[in-house]
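To illustrate the input format used throughout this study, we show a single complete record. The first block contains the structure-token representation of the backbone; no residue identities are included at this stage. The design step must infer an amino acid for every position from geometry alone.
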């Protein structure tokens, strides 16, 4: 997550190397995606997809017959995601440049359908993305509106470590600050409020919070 806010253009080519993905944050991605009720052929929306760090895990679950819809406001991060999909041979990836806080869900759904996907998705997730958005509540609402009724939803994000791991709080705060994330945002509370059958999990001393549920 080591990303200077507003510097996507310069950092995008190196993001995967500098993001502390493998030692820290990939754990949350895996828990979140594995908790989604994904099946071969499903379509899933990845809000704030960045360079496509979720795509490999998602593709393994939905297979080549499914569809991954990655939405991000940064064209430079999307360019890296596109290169990744091309390199891996993932032809079932649709990438859309849009700000999750200002997009019109109906227009995005229509665009997805025009590009070979379905208008509404069976699943949606946001990993370490909503805490980057000042108006994460609107982004969360839009995430719901792009999903079909009963869709499986996951939010993975960060808070200050708890218990004995609270000693690592300064490091966690610094990492979130450099990445432009608000460690106090707690965007998973939107899922807890709006979804049914909510499941909760955490990792890395409580620093990573994962919530999964179904759209009502």
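Output of the design step:
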């Amino acid at each position: 997550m080591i990303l200077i806010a507003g510097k996507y253009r310069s950092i995008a080519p190196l993001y995967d190397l500098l993001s502390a993905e493998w030692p820290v944050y990939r754990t949350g991605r895996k828990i979140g995606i594995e908790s989604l009720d994904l099946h071969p052929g499903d379509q899933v929306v990845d809000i704030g997809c960045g360079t496509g760090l979720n795509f490999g895990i998602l593709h393994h679950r939905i297979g080549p017959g499914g569809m991954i819809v990655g939405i991000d406001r940064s064209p430079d991060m999307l360019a890296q995601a596109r290169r990744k999909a091309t390199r891996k041979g993932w032809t079932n990836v649709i990438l859309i440049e849009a700000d999750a806080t200002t997009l019109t869900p109906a227009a995005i759904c229509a665009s997805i359908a025009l590009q070979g996907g379905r208008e509404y998705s069976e699943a949606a997730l946001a990993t370490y993305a909503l805490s980057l958005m000042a108006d994460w509540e609107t982004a969360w609402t839009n995430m719901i509106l792009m999903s079909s009724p009963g869709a499986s939803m996951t939010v993975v994000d960060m808070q200050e470590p708890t218990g004995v791991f609270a000693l690592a709080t300064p490091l966690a705060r610094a990492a979130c600050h450099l990445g432009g994330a608000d460690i106090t945002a707690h965007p998973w509370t939107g899922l807890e409020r709006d979804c049914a059958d909510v499941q909760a999990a955490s990792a890395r001393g409580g620093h990573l919070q994962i919530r999964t549920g179904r759209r009502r």
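Structural context for interpreting the output: The chain has one domain: 8-215. The two ends are 31 Å apart (CA to CA).
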